[in-house]
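Title: Prediction job returns without error message
Component: structure pipeline
Severity: low
Priority: P3
Assignee: unassigned

Description:
Job completed but the reporter wants confirmation the result is attached to the right record. Sequence as submitted:
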Amino acid sequence: MRSLPKQFPTRDLFAWAGMLAFLIASAGCGFVPIAPESHVERNLEILDKAMSDGDWRKAASLLYSKMSYETATQTLKGKAAARAFLKSIKDIQGMNEIHTHIKKMKKLDEKRVAAAVTMQAHITLSSMSLKFSNSTWQAKMLWVKVGSKTWKLASVKETSTRAHARTSRGGI
């Protein structure tokens, strides 16, 4: 039986293998730290999916109880703000999907993350004639950590009006 050359770093190999096994095992247990920005990105995806699917209870569960919602014409706080924000999305006629595109994100501290976003609602005007529209607007969001791994949307400030663009796709 042939042995490995003396310069083969078996100790290093075992050390790396052990470290990799530890990381894999601890990833599911919450030992590996995840950046706050990653939590916010994941929650934005969950919020978008919930609003796109019309699951307003799930969407509401991601909103902070003391949230604020500000548009050009109103500023609301608390449950009224949460209801108004969700209603403003729900009331978009013909909306079948909403996406939040993160333009800039900044960790303010361990419990707060600010994000500048573009919100885009995809709207079907006529599925028969393949006419679609998009409503887009800019907003600033503040996410806060309320539990060991729980992040909630605490503030939405719409910084532009909602612009609409109609598009048609060619025939078959």
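Comment from assignee: result matches the submitted record. The chain is about 30% helix and 40% strand.
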